[in-house]
Amino acid sequence: MAEDNSLFVCEASALRDGGKGVRFPVIAFGHPATGFVVRYAGKPFAYLNRCAHVPIELDWSQGDFFESSGLYLMCATHGAVYQPDTGKCAGGPCRGGRLRPIAVSERDGGIWWQPDEMVQAPAV
Question: PROSITE patterns annotated for this entry (predicted)?
């Protein structure tokens, strides 16, 4: 863990624009869950891995969050699509919802996430 309470997710080189994301364990609203980080337009973005339509994980398989064009994040179950840089619903059954963001930064060759009041680090 870094001095600012950030937690390491992965090497920065593990993320490609519009490519696979990396999942990481979190405690969300008091329950075990996963977060994920993807790279879009050169920057990392992280969200709670929970669709705004129905609270289920988004990915098709481990780390597949983008739909085929690499422009939108897509829920594998119901097809809701989200803007990768804002988490806002861009179409489908999410109807104006948005993904829950997780603060993330890229430094020292790594991707780091920052716990907050609702999304915490799991017990070690």
Answer: RIESKE
